[in-house]
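User: I'm curious what two different proteins look like when written out as structure tokens. Can you demonstrate?

Assistant: Sure. I'll show them one after the other, since each token string lines up with its own sequence. Here's the first protein:
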Amino acid sequence: MTSQVGARVAAVVCGALLVAVNGVLGFVTFAVGPWRSAEDAEALAVYRDLALAVLFGCALVAALTWVFVKARWLGLWWYALPGLLAVLSLIRVGMA
């Protein structure tokens, strides 16, 4: 009984951590600047660099997700969040 409660607490804590981190990465991906604007080359370079930082962050979150999935605290579908953000970040890098 105690191990079931501990596993559920671990799942809630791990899920909350991943949602928070993916939320920050998503905010940086979507909320920072225009997706396409040829008016300011310096701003586009900054947006591209932020998208590359998000891509690196997605790799770290995927590694953290692997740890939680390996411990069987979370399901395999949790890989979808950093994967989706990584694809969107790659799209943003290509547009900058």
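Here's a second, unrelated protein for contrast:
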Amino acid sequence: MRRAVGTHGTVHGIDGLQQRHDAGQTLPTLYCDSAGCTAPLTFVPAQARAERSAPPPVPAYFKLAKGAAHAPGCRYDAPGYLDALLAAAPDPDFVHALDDGKHELRLLALHQALKRGGGPPLDNQLPLLAQLLVVRAMCGNDSLLAARLVLRLGKKKTAWDAFFYDQDRYDQAWARLDAATSEVPFALVGTVRSHRPGQSGSDSHTTFLNCAPQYLQTGIVDRREFVEVSVGHDDAAWLHTFAVGTEIIMFGLWRQGRSHTATRPHPTDPRRTITNVTHKLALRPVSMHQLAVV
């Protein structure tokens, strides 16, 4: 959970509550922000930083108040919400019930529609897939989805860890594209960092939504490597609806952008040179259902 609502319906984000906590201000009474759920919440602030410039060792988060529970069907009751989504799935050719009680998510038609750049699956199947991916993002790992939902792409099954990538696994997504012989669909979850217009040429009418990158530990002094994620689209207004700081799901046929190496002098030691290597993951959505807020 990244937000909660107060007594009068005001939405409170984690960053704003952390600032109020740091300033010694009184925090509001908080409740779950999912429609139909009024479970009381407690804000748990980030632990104190060892140094002012260092990130907090444990980020701030919300937890249920003692004795509280989410309402049935609440999006934060992940098992119950997942069961409700699967039970209500309208297309048995997309979400197929198996004899062992699991369901199978059949992705071939959606994959083909993405490759064509259009088709009924983009409107009929993508919205439900986006909801399922949001559940996976809120869980923080693959366990729940892997136990209840089998992924199938044509004749082959796909493991969840090869279909959904958190920020700390962007490098694995990039490596998968490097090794792939054909386009494969998968999802990333990320936090919006910026929006920027395209440069001159073929990208001049494109706006890019950029997410916070993954920083790779190289073990080499003065060498830094990053994996950046960007989504490009001609509809700038749509991309700007995903505000900076928003956690989003991005699904589709990804491609590798060009890796870029840049050097600069060390800020305090002129004998040293800092090398930054940036690897890029890029997505060009053909449907607005390919992005969703967590």
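A detail about the second structure: The CA atoms of residues 207 and 235 lie 7 Å apart.
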